UniProtKB/TrEMBL annotation:
Protein name, per record: Cache domain-containing protein
Species per Swiss-Prot/TrEMBL record: Algoriphagus halophilus
Domain of life of the organism encoding this protein: Bacteria
UniProt-listed PROSITE patterns: PROKAR_LIPOPROTEIN
Amino acid sequence: MKIGLRFFLIICLSFFSCEGPKSSDKFSVDERLANLVKNMEKEFLTLNEEIIRLGDFYQYVLANRDSLLKTADRSRYTFEGSFSNNLPVQGEELSKLILSTKSPDPEKSMEEVLFTNILDSAFKAVYEKHPIIAQVYSNSPMQVSRVYPPYDAQNLMDPDIDLVTFNFYYEGDLEHNPQKEPIWLPEVYVDPAGKGWIMSLVYPVYDGDDLFAVLGIDITVEEILHRFLEQEDGNLLIVNGIGDIVSGKSTAIEALSFPPLKNHVYTETIKSDNFRISDFNLFNSKSRQVREMGQEFLLKKENTFLFENENDLKEAIAIPFNFTDWYLIEINPY
């Protein structure tokens, strides 16, 4: 009996010693991913604070528009058609301006340019303070666009552009943002100003009850990958709530049965002319199990998915973001 009891205890101890590290390892993985999400959100939420301060400064501008208009330097910008003719120069003090032909009142649009020129220094200060930022800008219903740093708008933009039809404007309006708060747009999109695939933070500026402008801060997908994901071990990617891959390591993306990446690099792939974001959506993967993983994470809000006979993949772990409809996913092979 003593021998039998001793043997039973040895078996039990062996069982628990084998199972224990698995639970501990999973906890450490979850904790590592959660900390990465927390660090990313901390930096993104810092930009929320910045854009609110920009909005407060814009309110000051609106409150003092008459005096600013009287003292405005009318030679600060000159225009060729719809575009200010200043060239993109590093360290430039000026923004790039567009006065679209869609303006409902070109004279009032030009007045807006004059009394909002003071925004240039504020945009530049925010841009230089945060290396993650690609550009700072404002767009108005008067079809005035101000972007810092300046860019080659003449060769990239249509003089007939209708600014209010773009998500970086209308997502800030009262219909889409009744709370009048900073909003991160969950979908990445091609920047018409030539910055590639970007994500945007937008914030409305009201003049009384009327929407006067929508401020924006952009960061590039490439910067997200370089700044956060490439610094971490593991096969990591970020997807939004509809399954689009926002950013990710090539090892993670190529493991999920998506089209081949250009030079095995996602940031090069998204710059190619034939790139379609829908090709890199979890629900459009050729793999049934990857599509099921998307359902488990995005629809059922599960945190773990176990693969079965799927390209040597073992499991995937997902951690949701709080500030926008994103998920950080790690793909673990055997």
